[in-house]
Every structure is written in C-alpha cells, then in structure tokens.
Amino acid sequence: MRCAAWFLRTALRPIMVSLLFVVTASALGQVSPAEILNPRLKADEAKYLPQLQSLQQSITATKFPFPFRLARYVNAQPRQRTASDSNGIEFVYFEGREVLKISGIYKAAFNATLLTKNERASRTFQEVVVPILQLVKQQIPENIDCDGIGFEIIYNTRDANKAYDYEGQESLTVVFDRKDAFAYLNASGDAQQQEILNRSDIFVDGKDFGLALGQRGPLDLQALERSVPRQVRESSSSIPAGAAPADSVAESRPALKSSATPADAMRLQAQSQAQLNAIMKEDGAKFHLLEGTPPSFEIYGDQTVLHVTLQNPLPFHRDTTSIYKRAAQDFDLFLAPELKGLLGRLPANAEYGALDFSVLNRLDHPGDEKNPSETVDYICPLKSVQSFIENKITSQDLIDQSIVLVNGVRIALNLQLVE
C-alpha cells in the first residue's frame, strides 16, 4: 500500500521536554530551514520563509466548517512528541518532484453509512483544500521554485452500521502540478476543475483515487491521464540538482513524504534489535545508558537517526550553573569520552545519518527533595562523530555541525566560553 503518512517520532521524553516542545513548535509556526538537511529543500525553505510564515498565519486565522489545524506529522499519536508539531508547511520530494506540502488534521467526522468514500474525500477537498489553495494563491508567487503544490489532510469517519459506533480515520492526499494549482481557482466551471483534478495525483489512504466532484462514486482510474505519467517518473534515475543521493529512495515512492519514513526506522530497528539489546545487557552500566531504554531508530527531520539515552551520574547545582555550562560539561566531561567506545558497539549501518544522544541531568537544589531533571540532546551527523573520534575535528567542530537542544529548545553552544 502506498503510504501518505509523514514521519513519526516515537521516543519517550520527560514530560517537561514535551511541554517545552509544544511551546517551541507553536512559537516557530513554520518549519525552520535549519531542520532540513537536503540542500535544495533547505535553500527553498529559507528563500520563501516569509511567504510560508504568512501562509501559516492565514491558514490558522481561517474558519473552516469544522476545526482544522496544521500538523507536520498527521498520523502521530497524542502521546508522541511529534503530535505537537504544528509546522505543517514544508518542501519535500514526491516522485522526483519538489513539492510544497501543506498538511493538517480536519476535525470532521463523516458518517460512512451516509457518505461514500468519494463523497467524504470530495467534502474534505472542497472544505479544506480549496480554501487553503486560495490562500496559497494570495501568499505564494506563481513562479515559486518548485514543481508542485501538495496537500495531506486527515479526517475522521464514523460507521454506526454495526453493533457499536466505530470511528476511524481517512487521509486525502492531493498533489497538483504547480501551474495547475494556481489555475484551479481560475477554471471556468466544474468541468475544467475536474479536468485539473483528473491529471493531478490523488490518494485516499495512500491508494490512487479518481476523485469526482459532486458524485457518489469515484472516477475510473484507468480512464484518467495524469499530467506526468507515473511510470515515467518512477523509472527516472535522475536526482534533482543539489539533492543528496539518498533522496532517490524517496523519489521512487508514489507517496508524498520526506526522505526517511517510520517504516525505514522500524526496518532498521528489527534488523538491529538483538545487537541493541546486547549493548544494554553487556555495556549499559559502562556507558550509563538509561535503564530500560535501549537505543532505538527514529526519524528526525528528513533522516533516520539512532537515538541513545544516557543518564549523567554527576549532579549539577541548579543555582550555580546555567543551561549552557551544563550542556558544555555534559559533552566535554561525560559524552565525549564515551563516544569512541560507544560508537564501536552501535550498529555500523550507512542507512542512518545521525546519532541523537539524550543526556539526562539531575539538578540538585538545597531544600528541594524532588531533584528535578533536564534533558540535553546532541543530534550529531554520524560522519562528524566518526571524524571526531579519529581526531580529525575538534569538540567545537562537532558541536557546530550538530543540533543541541535543552528540554526541546535549541541553543547555540560555545564550549570554551561557558567552561
């Protein structure tokens, strides 16, 4: 089945991290170029960031028939960290094309016994996609440097035709050619709009779908002519200018998604589970790995990362240290000395591009018996870590090439200045 879902990050974090991440995501309101690793996508995110931020604000201020909110990872479960990420506008690759993707959750609950799948998808298209498309036309230049405009909308369905009332979800994915996206609203009449839809890529629950406006049933897929034949796109081995070779994997998949997917992380996890369990059993205490939390493969941004959680045994005094000094000492005195031995025990697999080291700190405070904690994440490119342990780069070089988060909030870190 073709999956139209985006990345899910399933790692458990302390409650404080999750709450701060909600605040951070809401404050940003838009995917930051710093989160994107692919050079071409990163450049376009930076180039059009003001327009994308304006579009995000306009969508948030728009009233839909039912509540709608932008969501970067529409299938994330409420308990997952990614469920709070409202940065639902970003550039991604889809079948060899660069697409501006807009994704979110529509709080409609369509009765499956009264409305067909086509009618449910058509309602979602008319009530959500078309209004947002109007905002796109107002905020985004028609000559934007991408190949298409895409939408991924999750909505609820209710089926009472059983012994109980069952509620599930469906997803509608629509990918317009860039010119068609802007032409749709100017089309004279339903017939021209339907023609544009017929040559666009449309999926319901990840499967090709012939969306028919105003009809109970969908169109026959065999009778539709797409603007760019799918077999041509899928057989192409070319990589867009500036794209990393790994992007060719994502480009060959007929789904709107980033370079790495939850399925990739799950596959690597299954392949390496025995090795990861052995690390916990044999060397967990040596490396101060958090008990009961073996390393796990996850998705961060558009790449697969190996997440390792460690407990710093040395307490910090909250009144005499800052988050910057604690982050620096965590790295210099605790994490860095362990990297060579730890990397030698972790899976040597070229399919993941970074390591996410979560260091848990215990903060002592006079009279405070609860000993509050904090989490410092060092998200380091795998190649940079290898260069560091080979003494090819310095500690500061590794930090500069990495992302450092304190309780989910990104910080800049100069090791010498805060020591």
Describe the structure in brief:
The chain is about 35% helix and about 25% strand. The protein has helices spanning about 15-30, 40-45, 50-60, 115-140, 180-185, 190-200, 230-235, 245-250, 260-285, 325-345, 380-390, 395-400, 415-419, and strands at about 70, 90-95, 95-110, 150-160, 165-175, 200-205, 205-210, 295-300, 305-310, 315, 355-365, 375-380, 405, 410.
Comma- or semicolon-separated keywords:
419 residues, alpha+beta, 2 domains, 7-stranded mixed sheet, 13 helices, 14 strands, 35% helix, 23% strand, elongated, disordered N terminus
Walk me through this protein's architecture.
The chain has two domains: 15-258, no CATH class; 264-418, no CATH class. Helices cover 35% and strands 23% of the residues. Strand 4 and strand 5 form a beta hairpin. The chain is of the alpha+beta class. Helix 3 (49-61) packs across helix 4. The model is unreliable at 1-29, 79-83 and 227-258 (pLDDT under 50). The strands form two sheets. Strands 1, 2, 3, 4, 5, 6 and 7 form a seven-stranded mixed sheet that branches. Strands 8, 9, 10, 11, 12, 13 and 14 form a seven-stranded mixed sheet that branches. It has helices at residues 15-28, 39-47, 49-61, 117-139, 178-183, 190-198, 230-235, 247-251, 262-283, 323-345, 382-389, 395-400, 415-418; strands spanning 68-70, 89-94, 97-111, 148-159, 166-177, 201-204, 207-208, 296-300, 303-311, 316-317, 354-364, 373-381, 403-406, 409-411. It is built from 13 helices and 14 strands.
